[in-house]
């Protein structure tokens, strides 16, 4: 859709659109008011039960893992026990009110967003969807939120604590703290919290009018000219809502600035301890005000630099914080404009181009879709067995072939594909490529993406043969089951001890990354869907091969049916809708 040109055409377009926007906003508001109590009830009860029910287990297991860990010494363990107790008490206090507040916010805003999304381009019967969208999906979304929180509190928590309990220090010596540096660090933290809390608040309040009027000016200019977020029809309702809610965004930014003073001020204790100097801690406290002021100037496109002094707070000579005259580097977008002489990005950037950028949840969906595809191939080859699926379904530790080995196997195939294509990023199975330009701008994703790029470059340097690649794949997939690994590894004469050690290191690193991905929000729910798909494929494959033995096939089907019936909040219908073979199997079992 081309935006109108000229002031008169833009004004007429805006006036014609305004009644639709107001009608959608009123309809969404009514739906939000009606559905908010139900969504709040589901999330408040579900999350509160999880918090209260798991809190004693979290308390006992946290104490046990901290006491048994070999990573830290006695003094650090004592401090960790005190900190863990404080965090668990705060979690219990704010968790229940927070679940009620989250239910209210989600139950009210989700129907409004769904109402606006119903009139986007390509939507069929928008009038009907305006009333239907955001009703039942809000209720099911509330249940999904409760389930994801359950996975985080149960699966992710115990996985992290087990790593803390079992991991050993790299050099064999536990981490310990210097007791003599503790008083100076605590005093530095107190000074940092006091000074940063006051100064950050004053700076945020001083600059909030600038953010308010600059934001309104930009949004109104885009609205009149149908540019920027107002270019695409699907985005117009959200952009119009942004104008109305912009003051709340400014208030939220001010509150976030005030809250940021807590970690930044407390970090002075870290500086004082690391440098073994109380003076360096105080220097950081004063410099953090300058850092914050300069950062807010960059964000609001104000004059660069800061009027506050910036001192040297590190003894090492390679720090960028040596003097107050060293400014913070602006983001790359500012540097490119100045260095290359380019004009600022145009406000008429299409929303359709921006949605092609990857986000963590899209990549997570792609990972599990590829796990399903390659997992079905491994089931047909007999590499993944019923024992693997039974261990995963029952929640046993087992060999980890499915929950750790299979995702690592999929990621390894992507790395090998990218290394062979000499790609600068990561090539997925659908030939799309993740690069530094379109990758998700998320700190959590950086923890996974950067190490994978390092492994890809190392694989490219090794230049493995096909036999060695197959050896590496089996090593990654079956690393948790040494007995099966010995029989599954192919004989590769070209492998010497050095190369085997390198392959083992690759396998351990990939499995470590995969274990971290499994703790990501919504990962457990997606993995449950994957397991059901593999169960259907295994039933179809093994059922056909055992058709001559009726009793064995019947026992297999009964075993699968029992496991499926034990799964709560299952999505078997979704899997069967997506898998025609599972539909055939299901229909053949129906009398």
UniProtKB/TrEMBL annotation:
Protein name in UniProt: Steroid nuclear receptor ligand-binding
Q: Which keywords accompany this UniProt record?
A: Membrane, Transmembrane, Transmembrane helix
Q: Any stretches that span the bilayer, and where are they?
A: 6-27, 34-55, 75-94, 101-119, 185-208, 229-248
Origin organism is Panicum virgatum (Blackwell switchgrass)
Native organism taxonomy? Eukaryota, Viridiplantae, Streptophyta, Embryophyta, Tracheophyta
Q: Which InterPro entries match?
A: At3g27390-like
Region labeled Disordered — which residues?
A: 317-349, 567-591
